[in-house]
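Regression report. Comparing outputs from two consecutive submissions.

Submission 1:
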Amino acid sequence: MKIHHIAIICSDYEVSKKFYTEILNLNIIREVYREERQSYKLDLAIGEHYVIELFSFLDPLKRPSRPEACGLRHLAFSVENITGKRNELVEKGLVCEEIRIDEFTGKEFFFTQDPDQLPLEFYEM
């Protein structure tokens, strides 16, 4: 029917929480500390749409996450103004690629990354 959510395990919960809520401006639905796992679970939304579960775990394993590595390639967010979004993220201290053009759709997009180097794409709709 549709994707319900995407789960992300971060290496530094406070850094990633700040990134997703203050840099990307996702809304907090709920934040839970799970004592038995010594782990946080933060449910995030874009507007009213639940999209990301952000987890913390003690000593999570490393995983390659370059766009061409096996596994999840990247997360893509749709935006109305690609230049405005890129400028906003650069002003907040993110390193962003130059804007590119999708050869099949003619739409503009660029990549940046989260604090754990998970590639993030912003795609103009």
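Submission 2:
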Amino acid sequence: MTTTRTRHASGPRERLLEAAQQLTYSQGVGVGVDALLKAADVARRSLYEHFGGKDGLIAEVLRRSAEADEAAYVRTMAAAGEDPRARLLAVFDGIGEVIAREDFRGCRYLAADLALTDPEHPGHAVTRAYRARVTGLLEHELAALGHPRPAAAADQLLLLIDGALAAGATRPATDPAPAARRLAELVLAE
């Protein structure tokens, strides 16, 4: 990740999104506006023209990230084949790979929810919608598996996912993804 000023072929809106995508993940959503503007090499006016301010930019970055991350869940499950159990457990294997990345800083959505103290911040609606879609993906697989309580089990799996990502950021030496996978196997066995 680079935070130095560079010239890009993309316009100010895209540069703001790219800079905010990187900086809010590496430094958190509390990163200053000046740092965002400098990294994007744009004037303050561009932030307000395109996003109405920092809150709008943060919400759009979360929305953009959520689309990419949801697609990653779908790809991970699809790569595991047709068996719903294998597809669900592949999610935890994928989380292990994400946690092992050198630039891993934890769950963007959990970090945003904790840092955005205003309950009306538009970012909260984005993180809630993202979690609901991921839960829906999990529930769909659980129903295909014939689980007796797919909605409740999907909530449990999401809790394991959130916990593994949080532990991966705060206690990386504990290797939380395999532990979460073992717990997920218990949820699937109900």
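Expected: both submissions complete independently.
Actual: both completed, but the second showed a warning that disappeared on reload.
Relevant detail on submission 2: The chain has nine helices and no strands.
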